[in-house]
Amino acid sequence: MIRRTRFAAASHSGHRCARTDYTRACQAAAAEVLARYSTSFSLAVRTLPPEVRIHITAIYAMARVADEIVDGGMAQLNAAQRQRELDAFEQRIAAAVATGASADLIAHAFALTARQVGIGPAEWEPFFASMRADIRPQAHTEESVAAYIHGSAEVIGQMCLAAFFQGAVPEADAASLRTGAMALGAGFQKVNFLRDLAEDTRLGRSYLPGLGAAGLDDAARDRIVAEIDADLATAGAVIGLLPARVRPAVRIAHALFAELNRRLARTPAAQIRTQRMRVSNPRKLALAARALTRAGAGGERP
């Protein structure tokens, strides 16, 4: 009896270690996805405390894998095949959140985050709907692009907000915080619409209702830049309501996209139509340092 008890205890401990090792492996896989795909976002994420960084990394990795299915690493698949892959990935996400486990490393990492901070179908279903819209490109209307922005960007902002507060967004500030989170996501996405215009055109996509790549002139550019400025201003106004330990990361991301928008504002529309704008790595580091200095001066360091 004593031997069986000891063996059972050792076995139970081994199961706990195996679960911990698997979780760490899944979260490391999510971190590798982030590191490989985004220097800007990873720069901001590195300033987050570890317990929050894990969640933001998992959210990013889930979104990136879906995007790769649509038009990245699986571009060799036809539209019907990509549709099936995307549907299967969403099903794995839903099943993983329901059960708390998945053989899909990214789904497992995302599910742990979703269960801990309260992310549900109301967030990921609109996201996957927007991803499906990219499989068979269409010329967007004002209404359809608004729905696309909500699913592809605003709900990601809501997911990140839940992660920042570990699922407990303060009720008194909830409406303002959600408005700011969605505005930040929308602003980021509109920046991408402009700077990725040449590539989107090659893929047969148009996110600028009534314009398309050929129709973008300086006046249209100025209108979109102004919309982005308004979104970033709305988001910037509520950063102070976030937990102090996450504000530096948000300020860095905000500063990087604000810089991109300023560069787009100075770039002729004809150049935007053919060339992708970017911020150099030294400039990114300088902007990040400035954001951290501001955070430190305001007592915002975690």
Automatic annotation (TrEMBL):
Keyword Methyltransferase: no
UniProt name for this protein: Phytoene/squalene synthase family protein
UniProt keyword terms in alphabetical order: Transferase
UniProt keyword Transferase present: yes
InterPro entries listed in its UniProt record: Isoprenoid_synthase_dom_sf (IPR008949), Squ/phyt_synthse (IPR002060), Squalene/phytoene_synthase_CS (IPR019845), Trans_IPPS_bact-type (IPR044843)
PROSITE patterns linked to this entry: SQUALEN_PHYTOEN_SYN_2
Biological or metabolic pathway of the protein: Carotenoid biosynthesis; phytoene biosynthesis
Taxonomic superkingdom: Bacteria
Organism, scientific name: Brevibacterium otitidis
